[in-house]
Design brief:
- The protein has a single domain, classed as Aldolase class I (TIM Barrel).
- 28% of the residues lie in helices and 20% in strands.
- The protein is built from eight helices and 18 strands.
- The chain has helices at 87-100, 114-124, 154-165, 184-193, 232-245, 260-269, 279-282, 286-300, and strands at 15-17, 20-22, 26-28, 50-52, 69-72, 75-78, 105-109, 133-137, 141-142, 148-149, 173-177, 198-201, 205-207, 210-211, 216-217, 224-227, 251-254, 273-276.
- Helix 3 (154-165) packs parallel to helix 4 (184-193) and helix 5 packs parallel to helix 6.
- The termini are far apart.
Length: 316
């Protein structure tokens, strides 16, 4: 019995994020692909458009107490707490192994104040030629402003992006924003005016899981960030609202993407590229599978160029 030949996908999968060209629009989301080559050993990063590493501070950080992860309805709650080795240790010890795997790397940075963000960017300068962009994780508590989240106000978000953009790091800057901001479009506009090239939309939603038997939270730090399929409608809404208000803005649409169809939906909503996060916890090769599924979906629906999907949602 002969097997039917596998049909080749004749689709141009090239994606653009402002000045950055990607082989395809699928990007491993920050916090889900590790710092170095640990996940890359299981999922060939050459099959992805890019890999965003776990957010890094200018110092080593131990993160939150365990437990840190807990399954939730249609997703997962996490409170890892941005554990990491710091920019210098990552730059010198872990980035080379990831690059050796053929990954196109987006570094993600965070801080407790504006100076932390600026310093993290400065420490990345020697690695600039090994990176394609830097993501600024603005969903962090600002310890200089009563721990309010940087991403919740245009002024604070813009101040951080301005500091990173003027740090000497000659790379495109993507501001990662929170879906819980009162006026996401205004905050997005402020970061772009401050020097951001584009946006990552969105980060997790804050949530809480309770253990009724012990009368305590399930996670060691109390609450955590909700991710996975449950937040896909929130992410799609955020991407669509910002893309419609700021036409042409490069967006990495992230949140609940688990299939090639999910990725197509994110592109239609206005994303230029698609972040895959929580799906990787279920299957380390999920991002590569989604890239293949997206190509197959385009082929089956007569889409010759994946870029033609960007912002093509019909709302009238």
């Amino acid at each position: 019995m002969s097997r039917r030949p596998v049909r080749a996908h004749r689709v141009d999968m090239t994606a653009r994020l402002g000045p950055v060209e990607l082989a395809n629009p699928i990007v491993a989301a920050s916090g889900t692909f590790g710092h170095g080559d640990e996940v890359a050993r299981l999922c060939d990063p050459r099959q992805l458009g890019a890999v965003t590493v776990k957010s890094l501070a200018p110092f080593a950080w131990s993160g939150n107490p365990p437990p840190r992860l807990r399954p939730a309805a249609s997703g997962m709650l996490n409170s890892v707490g941005l554990q990491g080795p710091g920019v210098v240790a990552w730059r010198d010890d872990e980035l080379p192994a990831l690059r050796a795997c053929g990954a196109r790397v987006i570094a993600s940075i965070w801080g407790r104040n504006v100076d932390d963000f600026a310093r993290a960017a400065e420490l990345l300068v020697p690695a600039g030629r090994d990176l394609i962009a830097v993501e600024v994780n603005l969903s962090c508590p600002n310890l200089e402003d009563r721990a309010r989240i940087f991403a919740h106000a245009p002024e604070t978000a813009a101040t951080v992006v301005r500091a990173v953009a003027s740090s000497g790091l000659d790379l495109p800057v993507f501001a990662k924003l929170s879906p819980t901001a009162a006026d996401l479009v205004a905050i997005a506009g402020a970061t772009l005016d401050a020097g951001a090239t584009g946006l990552t939309l969105v980060n997790t939603l804050m949530g809480l899981l309770v253990d009724a038997a012990t009368r305590r939270p399930h996670l060691g730090a109390g609450g955590g960030g909700l991710s996975g399929p449950a937040i896909k409608p929130v992410a799609l809404r955020a991407v669509h609202d910002v893309a419609r208000a700021i036409p042409g803005v490069p967006i990495i649409g992230t949140g609940g993407v688990a299939t090639g169809v999910d990725a197509a939906e994110m592109l239609l909503a206005g994303a230029s590229a698609v972040g895959v996060g929580t799906a990787t916890f279920h299957n380390p090769r999920a991002a590569a599978r989604i890239a293949t599924e997206l190509a197959g979906w385009c082929d089956a629906h007569g889409v010759a160029r994946v870029a033609d999907l960007v912002g093509a949602l019909e709302t009238t």
